[in-house]
Structures are given as C-alpha cells and as structure tokens.
Write a structure and sequence with these properties.
By secondary structure, the chain is mostly helical. Helices cover about 75% and strands about 0% of the residues. Helix 1 packs antiparallel against helix 2, helix 1 packs parallel to helix 4 and helix 3 crosses helix 4.
C-alpha cells in the first residue's frame, strides 16, 4: 500500500508539475497571470515543510468531506509537494554534506 501511495502521488505530482511548466513557459502577455500563478504555487509549496502540507490538506479536505480516506489525503499531499519540486535537503547544505 505504501508503494501504491508513493507511485500514485508522484505520478499525479509529475502531471501537475508538467502543467505548471507549460503555464510558466507560455509566451505573450496573455499568459502573464498563468506564469505568476505557476511561480507563486511553486515558491509557496516549496517553502512549506511536507508535514505542514499534509496537515493543511487533511484539514481542508475534512472541512468539505467528512469521510475522506487517509489514502486520498496522503496522495493529495504527496502530489502537491512533488509538483512543487519538494527538496528534502535545505538549500544551505552543500553537495558534500548530503553524502
């Protein structure tokens, strides 16, 4: 079940990230609001720790759906974090310290 959760979350996160890339790389003045949305989404969700994202998703879904499964909540949290390019290592650590 853990592998299914990870696979589904990462695949949906990849698809969401692909849409964000397309929105961010759009040309022309008409695409400026989409670019700003994509940049804001990535910058906000990249900075929020994964546990906080999980709690936010949990409480948001529970506000609208009383009997939501924890599997669904975890998939949404994983896909949101993976779409934003969640990095488990802080930016201050060098490559040598990660090894």
């Amino acid at each position: 079940m853990t592998l299914a959760l990870t696979a589904i979350g990462c695949i949906t996160g990849f698809l969401l990230a692909f849409v964000l890339v397309l929105l961010r790389r759009g040309g022309g003045l008409w695409s400026l609001p989409f670019k700003l949305f994509a940049i804001l989404y990535v910058e906000v969700f990249r900075r929020i720790p994964f546990l906080v994202v999980t709690y936010l998703v949990l409480f948001f879904i529970q506000a609208f759906v009383n009997d939501a499964s924890l599997f669904t909540i975890a998939v949404v949290a994983i896909s949101r974090s993976s779409a934003a390019g969640w990095n488990p290592w802080p930016a201050s650590r060098s490559k040598r310290q990660r090894r």
